[in-house]
Amino acid sequence: MTAASPFRRALPRRGGSIASLLTILSLAIYVGAALATGQISQLSYEGVVGLAQRTVALGLVALGQTFVILVASIDLSVATLVSTVAVLASFLMKGDPAMIAPAVAVCLVVSAALGLVNGALVAYAGVNSLIATLGAGLVVQGVLAASFTYLPGSVAPQFLALAYKGPFGVSYAILIFAALALGSSFVLSRTLFGARIFAVGGNLAGARLAGIRTERYVVAAHLICSLMAGVAGLYLAARLQSGTPWIGRDGIYDLESIAVTVIGGTVLSGGRGGVAGTVAGVLLFACLDGAFNMLGVDAFFKQVLRGAIVIAAVAVHAARTKGHVA
């Protein structure tokens, strides 16, 4: 572990550089679109808060995906889990404020259970992470479709405060996302757990020879990922006032969370990356969405442009980090 310390200390500097470049690019796109279209109100305090609100759902899922990709795994079940949690929260609350705490607790337990299953399949059963998480997601999606053939009620009115209320006009959801991002960054850069996450993803065999129980860290990464997706599902339930089975699918949270994480400098081969780059990647997507809306870009063309940006960003990053797969 000592030999790896200089390498790990270099990670924040590289990640910070990527994050800074992405942040500058994102803000330039957003401000440029606002000035070009004359929609100066988008640059006001309320406009900036609205931009931050766009980052919450994808940002939460992407934080969890960062942990998973750092251990050289991946999670394709997050979109289904987002839908499941949103629907389950609505079903359990049914507009009753007394059911907020029990509903949130059940949703997080369900999220943790799926994360443990995903992690166990990958770490202990040796199932490829793409297949394991895709299969688990399909099972959950099947159960969701069979159990709820109509919209199951709505969340309690007080629960809407999560998405719409907060100090100085900043919603609690934004603050929660910021706190989780800072906490995740601290865990990865300043704790033994974070160091071992990097070690497992960077060199699995070497980590085992160093005495690290690698399976535990793979499971832990998947657990964190599912919990983050669960929090995103709760936020969307509050945002939309009820859960729908297609929230996660329509949001493309599985693929987009992978895309923003990789754009932010976390390599798919594991062991390199961090939270700052992921948050910057999320901001890029939020600014692109805002700019496209201001410019009146067609919804289908939006996806084409975003896909092209992902490919270009990953290609540039791959060229700069030869010898690693991204």
In short:
By secondary structure, this protein is mainly alpha-helical.
Spatial gap, N to C terminus: 25 Å
Q: Quick check: average pLDDT?
A: 89
- Classify the secondary structure makeup into a structural class: mainly alpha
CA radius of gyration is: 20 Å
Percentage of residues in strands: under 5%
The dominant shape is globular
The largest pleated sheet is described as: none
General description of the model:
Helix 3 runs antiparallel to helix 4, helix 3 runs parallel beside helix 5 and helix 3 packs across helix 10. The protein is mainly alpha-helical and 326 residues long. It has a domain of 226 residues. The longest helix is centred in the N-terminal third of the chain and has 33 residues. The chain starts with a helix and ends in a 6-residue tail after the last helix. 75% of the residues lie in helices and 0% in strands. It is globular.
Features:
326 residues, mainly alpha, 14 helices, 75% helix, disordered N terminus
Structural topology:
Elements: H1 5-37, H2 45-70, H3 78-93, H4 100-123, H5 129-147, H6 161-164, H7 172-190, H8 192-202, H9 204-209, H10 214-240, H11 247-251, H12 253-263, H13 275-295, H14 299-320
Helix pairs in contact: 1-13, 2-7, 2-10, 2-12, 2-13, 3-4, 3-5, 3-10, 4-5, 4-10, 7-8, 8-10, 12-13, 12-14
